[in-house]
Amino acid sequence: MKKERNFHALKGNIVYSKSPDCLEIFEKGYLVYEENKIEGVYLVLPDEYEGILVEDYGDRLIVPGFVDLHVHAPQYTFRGLGMDMELLEWLETNTFPEESKYKDPKYAEAAYQIFVENLRKSATTRACIFATIHKDATLLLMDLLEKAGMNTMVGKVNMDRNSPDYLCEETEESAEETVAWIEEVQKRNYKNTKPILTPRFIPSCTDELMRKLKSIQVKYQLPMQSHLSENYGEITWVQELCPESQFYGDAYDQFGLFGKDCRTIMAHCVHSGPQEIERMKENGVFIAHCPESNTNLSSGVAPVRTYLQEGMHVGIGSDVAGGTTENLFAAMRYAIQSSKLRWRLKDDTLAPLTMTEVFYMTTKGGGEFFGKVGSFEPEYEFDAVVLDDSRLKHPQEMSISQRLERMIYLADEREVYAKYVAGEKIYG
Question: Which member of 67, 261, 289, 352 has the greatest number of CB atoms within 10 A?
Answer without folding.
Answer: 289
